[in-house]
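User: Second chain of the day. Same drill as before.
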Amino acid sequence: MSQTVAVRLDEEVLKQLDIMAKAADRSRAWFMAQAIRQYVQHEAWQVDIAKKALTKMENGKAQFAPHEEVAQWLLSWGTAQEKDRPSCE
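Assistant: Same format as last time:
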């Protein structure tokens, strides 16, 4: 079951939304619902991954690489002295 909600958007976004809606012969509401659905699905995936990682950490099953080693490794990318990937502990 769908429900009606209010959304505040700036004028430029509304103009672009109207152009897209007219070109696709769809309503503003259809485009907004699609955009929100995609955003929520994406964010839900990220939340799920974070929860799983926290559970691993709490159960002592997570492995970590020291921050300084990771930072130095990333800084070495694209240089002649590129470092090997740090190992996890």
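The two ends are 48 Å apart (CA to CA).

User: Great, on to the next one.
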